[in-house]
Amino acid sequence: MKASEQAATAWRRSGTRGFCVALACAGALLPLGPSAAEDGSPIFGVHIPDGYRHWELIAPSHETGEFNELRGILGNPIAVRAYEEGRLPFPDGTILVKLAWKREPSSEFSGAFVPGRPTTVQLMVKDARRYADTGGWGFGRFIAGRAVDRAQHEACFPCHQASVRDHDYVFTRFAP
After folding, report:
1. Nearest to 15 by CA among 59, 74, 79
2. Confidence check: pLDDT of 18 > 50
3. pLDDT digits over 44-63, tens only?
4. Residues 6+ positions from 47 with CB-CB distance below 8 Å
5. Helix (H) / strand (E) containing 141
6. DSSP-derived 3-state class of residue 148
7. If DSSP codes are grouped into helix, strand and coil, which group holds residue 29?
8. Domain at 100, CATH number
9. Which of 6, 42, 59, 78 has the fewest CB neighbours in a 10 Å radius?
């Protein structure tokens, strides 16, 4: 598929041009590559993957309450294919990356919100054998390119297990 066709496909899937533009612009503020998190996440050893910023958008999301965040969930080609095929459980090699920013009112368009300062990069990596105790998923949560503490990582799977066990522990649904 040509780059222009890929862009058109991502455009159709995103549903909202303004959000995608803001997502792309604000994403430039986040750290790239595994060197930003040399030790990986505690418990799981998950690293921020090279090239993730070029992956397809699976869905945007908005977290209200104390988080007050705009989020974009990206998937590697294995994840995208699984979503397109409606495949559950997700196959090994699936990687989902959630980029999150504080939600701020737009200074240019009344009633609109845009990404503010980046808050986290969060990952889910599917490897059924390596992460058998956590539904086949390894988790990573990074702030400013550094993995957060062990206690925060211990909270990942219980939340997913309690809420989305029947969707292979994944909250995100594919945005049409």
Report:
1. 59
2. no
3. 999 999 999 999 999 999 99
4. 34, 37, 40, 41, 140
5. strand 137-143
6. coil
7. coil
8. 3.50.70.20
9. 6
Kindly indicate the confidence band of residue 38, based on its pLDDT and cuts at 50, 70 and 90: low
- pTM of the complete model: 0.79
On whether residue 55 sits in a domain, the answer given is yes
Do 125 and 138 touch, CB atoms closer than 8 A? yes
Total number of domains in the chain: 1
Spatial neighbors of 95 by CB under 8 A, at least 6 apart, are: 49, 52, 75, 76, 78, 79, 123, 124, 125, 126
What residue numbers bound the domain in which 157 lies? Answer: 3-167
172 domain residue, yes or no: no
In a domain, 173, yes or no: no
What's the pLDDT tens digit per position in 150-162? 999 999 999 999 9
Q: Do 121 and 148 meet the contact criterion of CB atoms below 8 Å apart? A: no
Burial of 110 from C-beta contacts in 10 A (0-12 / 13-18 / 19+): exposed
Taking a C-beta distance cutoff of 8 angstroms, is the pair 157, 137 a contact?
Answer: yes
Q: Say if residue 31's pLDDT is above 70.
A: no
Closest by CA to 141, choosing from 129, 131, 156, is: 156
**Long-range contacts for 110-118 (Cβ within 8 Å, ≥24 apart)?**
112/18, 113/70, 114/22, 114/26, 114/70, 115/22, 115/23, 115/25, 115/26, 115/70, 116/26, 117/29, 118/26, 118/29, 118/30
